[in-house]
Each structure stands twice: as structure tokens, then as C-alpha cells.
Amino acid sequence: MKNILFTITIALLTISLKGIAQQTPATAQKEAITIEGAVAHLGNGEVIENSLIMFEGGKITFVGDAKTRIARKGSRIDAKGKHLYPGFITTCASLGLIEVDAVRASNDKDEIGNIIPHVRSLIAYNAESKVVESMRPNGVLLGQISPKGGTISGTSSIMQFDAWNWEDAVVKTDDGIHLNWPDSFRREYSSARQDRRLVPNKEYQNKIVEIVHFFNNAAAYGNGAATSINPAFEATQGLFQGTQKLYVYANSEKEIVDAITHTKNLGVKKVVLVGGYHAYKVTDFLKQHQIPVLVSAPHNLPVSEDDDYDLPFRLPKLLTEAGLLVAIQNVNAKNFQNRNLPFYAGQLVQHGLPKEKALQLITENPGKILGIDENYGT
After folding, report:
1. Taking a C-beta distance cutoff of 8 angstroms, is the pair 179, 247 a contact?
2. At residue 13, does pLDDT exceed 50?
3. What's the number of domains the chain is made of?
4. What is residue 5's three-state secondary structure?
5. What confidence tens digit (pLDDT) does each residue in 38-62 have?
6. Is the pTM of this model over 0.85?
7. Residues 300, 155 share a domain
8. Of 57, 84, 111, which residue sits at a domain end?
9. Cα angle value 366/81/357 (rounded, 5°)
10. What is the pLDDT of residues 172-184, one digit of tens each?
11. Are residues 218 and 326 part of one domain?
12. What is the CA angle 93-94-95, rounded to 5?
């Protein structure tokens, strides 16, 4: 009797543990699959009302109209009345680098040092993170994982979120370096007026000089015969060769112009603006230099008292209509909120951006900006 009770107890525990176990990465696709009848939103602005989609060996092999005369392969899924979307792509995220904000041991997103381009998010990425797992049910299937903090935070990599470890997850290794441009103004509290006001940052020019000095030395290191390896300088060589992108975090009109002008003059081939709260004021300048924008997510309040109450909601639309390549990032919010990416796009629709254009901001456009659009985003 005791043995029977023990066996039943173990069986029940096994069932309950299986129910709460982490998501298991999918096995290799063994059979072709055909999905027919769904409304397919391709992510590039096109919609197929009655679609036929086939994939084999883990890759999409056909996308077209269901009326197409072509042999269906493998098992068939009738998806009439349903909608199909590409996987959403998040950018400038720290997913897999931090688990619990209050537990320092689980936080690898901000390393010691101010200029540390040689710090790589790749090898610190935790594919078993519970936060990463929460992305996939909402359609966020891959993202750019980037370090945070300091002036030069480090080097990011692009990972897919259905993996056993970082080697299994990596889509693109060391895709770019992240630079936090200094603030030209800072907030100062006045006890006399009982308020906070913006005042010029006296250290602004000094911080720019520090950045320029580093990049000049890094360029000289790459051009000369170095007697020893400098990890920081070594990590930046892709910026001058065009194999990596520089992601510059800047928001005010002056900061944006200064950041783009200085980095281009320093020989950086590819620059991406991150944030860009006042980018709508310098759209001609950004178009001239062909600068894509990873704009902040719309679930934010206006920064200044004089701003329109709905500026954060309309900003992606303003930049898109100006002819810029735009995608959404969520760097200022909590890490887990990256799963809200489709809701951010939905908010933009309510503020005037066409639905398929809004979808592009979380599918095709981030794929293009990250340089992975050949295989991802549409």
C-alpha cells in the first residue's frame, strides 16, 4: 500500500512540475508544414487576404496566394479567419542580461567602467531567463541584446529567443557598439522656486572631447602597427571598416546634430540614432546623412511642459512621414516591457499611422536597421 501511495505521489509531482517547467526550445523541424487560408501580414506593407505559406527545415519556402497552383507539402493547417504576422524584433534591450533588478548577482547589463566597447553582451546572455521566455507568447521572437551604462556601454549581439544557450541563440555576433551621448542640459532643483529647471551642462564639451579623443586613438590604433593589443581599441575597428554600427543615444536637437556630426567626422561608417525625442526638428539633417532612428516607445509622457501632450504617441509617425527609416525601441522602460512591442505599434495606429506601416516598425524596419533583413522581419 505504501509503495502504491509513493508511486502515485511521485507521478502527481512529475505532472505538476511538468506544468510549471520552463519553455523548451523546439526540436528541428522533421516534416514540412503548409498553412492555408490565413490573412497574412507580410511586414513590408503587403497583405494577402487568402494566403498560402509553406515552411520546411525551419525556413519559409513559399509565401503567396492560396489560389496559386502549387503542390502543398507536409501536414496542412487550415487557418481561415486567423491572421499571420512575422516575428517581432526588439532592439536595444537587456533581455537575458538581467533577471531581478533588486538582485545584483542577476544583473550583468552594466559593467564597471565608462568607456568599455570590448564588453560583449553575447557571452553574458542567459537563454533560460524567465523574462526572455515571456517575450515569445506575445510574438517577440528575437532582439538586439545590448549592455547599458557609462559613455560607451559595450557591444551588442542579436539573439533569437528559442534557444538552449547563447551559442544556440545568436543570430548576428557583435553587430554594433552603443554610445550614450552626453546631455547638453541637466535638471537643477531650485529651493527658492520649489521647482526643477533645465540649465546648461557645464561638462558637455569636456565629455565630447573625451569621446573624440577615444575614437581618434582607436582609429590611429587600427591604422598603425600596434606593439600590443588594446581590447577597447580592437573592439571598435568594425566601426571604421563598416562591419559594425554605432548606436548613438541622443534626444535633444543639439545633441543629435553634435553626435552625428562628430561621429561621422571621426570616420564611423554607419550610425543609428537611438531615442531621438526631438528628431522631428532635424529630419532634413538625418535624411542627408542617411541616419535610421530607433525611436522611444510611445507609452511615455512628454519630456517638457511645453510639448504637445501626444508628442510621444505621434513621434514615430512624424519621422516616418519625413522619409526616415524608423523602428521602435523600449530602452527607457523596464526590461520585461519589451513584450509590449505589438501594443506600442497598436497605439501608433490610434494616432494616425496606418496599421501596416505601424507593423513595419516592429518587423521589417528593425530587421533592416540591424542588418538581418535578408532572413528576418518579413
Report:
1. yes
2. no
3. 2
4. helix
5. 999 999 999 999 998 998 888 888 8
6. yes
7. yes
8. 84
9. 25
10. 999 999 999 998 8
11. yes
12. 95
